Amino acid sequence: MLTIINQCLLCIYWVVLIQRIDLPDVQSSLAVPSFKLTRVGVKGVKKLAHVKRPGKKTIIPLVTTIDLFVDLPASQKGSHMSRNLEVAAEIIDISLQKPVPDMESLCAKIAKLLLERHEYATLSEVKATADYFLERNLPSGKKGLEPYILIAEARAKSTGEIKKLIGIKAVGMTTCPCATEVIRKMISAGNDAVVPTHNQRNISTLMMEVPSDDHEVDANDLIEIAENAFSSPTYSILKRQDEGKLVLDAHKKPKFVEDVVRDMLGAVLKKYEKLSDSVVVIARSESEESIHKHNAFAERVTTLGELRK
Amino acid sequence: MLTIINQCLLCIYWVVLIQRIDLPDVQSSLAVPSFKLTRVGVKGVKKLAHVKRPGKKTIIPLVTTIDLFVDLPASQKGSHMSRNLEVAAEIIDISLQKPVPDMESLCAKIAKLLLERHEYATLSEVKATADYFLERNLPSGKKGLEPYILIAEARAKSTGEIKKLIGIKAVGMTTCPCATEVIRKMISAGNDAVVPTHNQRNISTLMMEVPSDDHEVDANDLIEIAENAFSSPTYSILKRQDEGKLVLDAHKKPKFVEDVVRDMLGAVLKKYEKLSDSVVVIARSESEESIHKHNAFAERVTTLGELRK
Amino acid sequence: MLTIINQCLLCIYWVVLIQRIDLPDVQSSLAVPSFKLTRVGVKGVKKLAHVKRPGKKTIIPLVTTIDLFVDLPASQKGSHMSRNLEVAAEIIDISLQKPVPDMESLCAKIAKLLLERHEYATLSEVKATADYFLERNLPSGKKGLEPYILIAEARAKSTGEIKKLIGIKAVGMTTCPCATEVIRKMISAGNDAVVPTHNQRNISTLMMEVPSDDHEVDANDLIEIAENAFSSPTYSILKRQDEGKLVLDAHKKPKFVEDVVRDMLGAVLKKYEKLSDSVVVIARSESEESIHKHNAFAERVTTLGELRK
Amino acid sequence: MLTIINQCLLCIYWVVLIQRIDLPDVQSSLAVPSFKLTRVGVKGVKKLAHVKRPGKKTIIPLVTTIDLFVDLPASQKGSHMSRNLEVAAEIIDISLQKPVPDMESLCAKIAKLLLERHEYATLSEVKATADYFLERNLPSGKKGLEPYILIAEARAKSTGEIKKLIGIKAVGMTTCPCATEVIRKMISAGNDAVVPTHNQRNISTLMMEVPSDDHEVDANDLIEIAENAFSSPTYSILKRQDEGKLVLDAHKKPKFVEDVVRDMLGAVLKKYEKLSDSVVVIARSESEESIHKHNAFAERVTTLGELRK
Known about the structure:
homotetramer
């Protein structure tokens, strides 16, 4: 028989009651069928974090969306998912008082603590994204904040190994080298003439592993590298003259998505020449083609060592 | 006391049992607090529908996503939402055997039947969208299917009045008239020279009320109107020469989003000169600006009568 | 003939040159065809804003996504869209130093300034959304930040009239009253027994016009109202006992989406009894039905005066 | 010098002209910097395809969204992306007349032809998704179409090796085993009583490699497996009694996302016992938790061989 829960009278008693009873730990019961699982956790957790870059005074507020996972052995029915939220809250809420130096460190701290709290796990993984604003010199000469997206990841193993990555998404402009040369020929323009071509919004991603030694990878530098790889960076505010100059500059530097990825890789090689061969590099570029309804895409997932060959 | 439901033994008995009992109609009970509601229903219903245009042989399969609403009087606690699904299933599933002539008629039929089934409702509203493919002449001279989005709506009143709308979303290309003229001046080009400018993907929407008399509004014509209003339509396949020609053509016809909307309105006025003044027209254009991270947008919501003034 | 733009030598000269030339104002030229436009502007502008509530010390950082529009007369070819961005930057960037009291005031300031800068406009409209975190008492007794969405709007007329709205989106839980009673009957449970039913994630929206007089509408109160209208608010962290209690509480308060909307309306009436009849109220509730692949939805768009009838 | 393009007079001449000139192949020029690229191609291509299952009469129309990539050697500046669209059009447009047996074969054909057309490529990759409708027995005893998502992938190597995968996304319902047992204890209910718990919409994905031998993997079977792994499948139409029964059934079969993944894996092992050890299996389950604002997630990426250990 199921005992009636009286909403009015028993409610207070019941609250008192349940504090004494020993609640079942269903997650720790045996799994049937007993397969191990690669990743178990939570997705889409929204948290406010505070970052303060080394040597800077400003606190950067980041509205982060986080995914947190651990693996699960074949014997355990469930992962204690509330622990993921407790770990995220502990570390991120502390950041509101004591800001972390960067988002990848935040992820690494969370990944490490996830392994401690999930005693059955051998791997943990944390992924975070956040809107990010960086001061840029506008073509008008003024300064202004432009929007970007930060991406950070960390993976920890029960052996103690931790990998962390920092990355960015930047929006820029590409002008098509193919249409440029085809049209140059079609209108018999000289090699140094600026000719019309199709151009479009491009979204590029650059991610790098951050080694635990002294050589720091800064998200701002990755934004710089991505923006230099576009035909032109773009800006919120452009008055007529700035717009004209930006468009002409972009036409002098036509770029396929392939070029954007390669130029990011080239700049990464140059900028991070002291980093070790094992450092992972991910570069992606996607153009919302103005002449097509679909997008153009290029990608390289590699290591500094591979790039140096 | 709550009777135990025995999972093993009583299960079959219980199924038999419930077929005899009189189940409560909670939706029809009194609402507290008793406010009437403007729209109550379901969103995101996915259905496969079949359309066959008058005088055509081909059956067009449409994967539609539908929202269906009725109003709800202050006295009634809940709307019987399963009736919305029954109505949608009845009318759309029949279309698989006996195709409807167009998507707006499908919505109108559903809207009418919704009012019959929800005896307490005075208004019903149905919105549907679907991917749609139309054969176009590619610049290469070949024919090919290009993707569009169909939008249909219908609103019915218990007085018998029914309004239906058909609309489309088309993706095209706009070249900026402002940068064109600024750059023409900056590089001292003549008035008839094709000069570089920024261009981008543009998504335009054109919707029209479909009167119940003889004059038919055809979604294919609305697509035609939208594509003519762009600097250029776009195509899935463009070989080098076609790409060059399309880009040059688009540069000879620079368009603000404002121009795209106005040119759609102008073409609608001309095409539908026999339709009555009361016919609703909605025109929107949004450019994914290549020189900015944000979009440019223009809109006119009006009637043919207003446009004719 | 189009003058060659020499990329190397003339670049600096050219920059100097263009500062002397008089650039064309294409937007101010005549529109052909000459229809007026309802809304012209920009969408998806991302800005960081600072809000400080009256009487509070904490600065709230808001990553806002803003749409800004004005109308456009039939005579004018284009709206000067860069002015929208300048206005947004001016007002929002100042907020980083001198925080605004609330997001709807920010929108109203922008809407007002838009009309000043677009001398041809008679209407302006600003819409903003932002992730927002509010401290809540977790069931465990601890305090924690829960995520919400802020929505603010402002519309200004050249006659001086300004309307502003503040709203919120909150995520909660609903348990179905219909399945509750049907199952109560099916398992012959008593009227006060807590019986199983289907429950699901619900996203509710509550927006209110904010009059320009003393009576303030606070987004935090709207969140409070929405969370009370759910079967239960939800929390990031729930340990076993808290989870059990929350689920039982939610089962004692079953709610249709219709109930959620009506209970929000009822609470609004009570809370804002001093506000005038003309104040606009918008309440929406959408349940991601666990027993269906589609969503259930209810809405009322009205005024306090209508609700008081 | 840039020749003036006269929009009125020279337009026809110019079209004639360009048909004689030899257009530059910019993509084939040397890449600087010369890094190879992992994936280069197009994303978000929309096409209508026709599928006819072996032994069935009905033609299934599929609105597919496709991504197509090849790799690019360090020496080549650009990939000829229009070839991707030509290949997709050739194979998919033929399917409208001669339907393919399944979506993974369609992808495999495209992947193979991509390698032929991109003579510099050593790898190709094709990913496609489509809305899909399958007839199910509704609880009412009637039959009805329920919506799912098909996922197909193919990867080809220049060595001749081709891998193809077929997968599905299904929406169902999960009831929480943890809250079930905690509440059972809190309300002192017996072990066989059906007690309240939180439940929610769950979206699960099951993908399998399809070997090229006789043993066929059918998307419909994967849907069957996924729906059996939920606490309950869900349906578009549920009348009161069906709803009550479905909710009670789901409460008798509480499932973590971990359980859903494991039960899919268990059913895959049983169903495909004749398939070889090397066959890749991907199983994912995500619950839109009703008691939280975030989602719960579990995943296993593995092979049949690993599962058999």
